[in-house]
Fold this sequence. Notes:
- The protein has helices at 14-23, 101-113, 130-138, 181-192, 251-266, 294-310, 327-330, 352-356, and strands spanning 4-8, 30-35, 50-58, 63-77, 80-92, 121-126, 146-159, 172-175, 220-225, 228-236, 243-249, 281-289, 315-321, 335-346.
- By secondary structure, it is α+β, with helices and mostly antiparallel strands.
- The chain has a twelve-stranded mixed beta sheet, with helices on both faces. A two-stranded antiparallel ribbon has the order 2-11.
- Helix 2 links the parallel strand 5 and strand 6.
Amino acid sequence: MKDFSFGLATKDDDAAIRHLLSENPVPGRITVTYEREPDYFMGCGTMGRFWQVGVARHLPTGRLAGVGCRATRPMFINGTIEEVGYLGQLRVDSRFRGRWLPAFGMHYFRELHRDGRVSGYVTTIVENNEVARGVLVDRPRSHHPTYREIGRLKTLAVALRRPRSVPRSPYEIGKSSDADLSDLVSFLTAHGRQKNLFPAYRVDDFRNSTTTPGFRLDDFRIARRDGQIVGVIGLWDQSGFKQTVVQAYSGTVRRIRPAYNAVSRLLGGPPLPAPGEPIRNVYGSFVCIERNDPEIFHALLQYVYNEAARRGYAYLFIGLDTRDPLLAVVEQYPHVAYPSRLYTVCLDDEGEFHSRLDGRVPHVEIAAL
């Protein structure tokens, strides 16, 4: 590894990082690149209030060989707030795969971890990314941290068609305003704690904060019963700093794509994008429902679906754990599923963070990954 150096990225690395992301897709049934135009660092704050970007440099050529992010944010663990780490955006340039870069990269993250900010981390790996799972989980190098699976995450790309007629419900649903913010954050706190890894939000997170760039207060949709908040979803458009670009389709998805697109057009829905095209999507974020009640979620999701369709998006992205009863509500809509696995990572090798989790269903904010 004498040909490589590891360190924190600077603004001067921006163009090289964005090039690395665009040239190294993540495999799956739908192979995509997660791109960050026009400025990689614009989206880093979504991962946490504290973040670091580590890079590996190939000294003989000056190329950027790999990149990865370490971020921390307060989350609910067993019902109480704790600072938790996230490891993401791990990419190695295809020219340098097959070496010890991931192992040495994790060694570098261990050095950063010594600042004592968190006791453990979470991360996700796309279900069909066998290379990453083999290197990090199934056949790790010596001295590599242990990845322990704690959940299966399903991101559903809900195809948005014409707005649907919404039957009457016992809930009043509408936009939020600045006057609602304190009550809204209190609701997220009271009911978010029922799930592990649910972010612990504060009022400042929704006031021109780097943690929610591009999100406005009136992007929240709130369900009320007798004047009290019972459910929340936010429509978060991140296309100004983060893009998901389709690169290829494989297997069944590739074979059915022409027929799917033909039927979708007849029904007024979006086609699956051609390779090289970005997905015109909006995230269904900050999903929080009183008692995790599917009936409340169903009424709120109908409203949010219509709002996203009226705004001209092609897909509404919502991610939930496979054990979450809310997932079945989203699955009633035409969608493309993008499964992944959720892991804990303990860089100190003691596994204390993992062993403390009490088995509550996890909730990962996919817009923050």
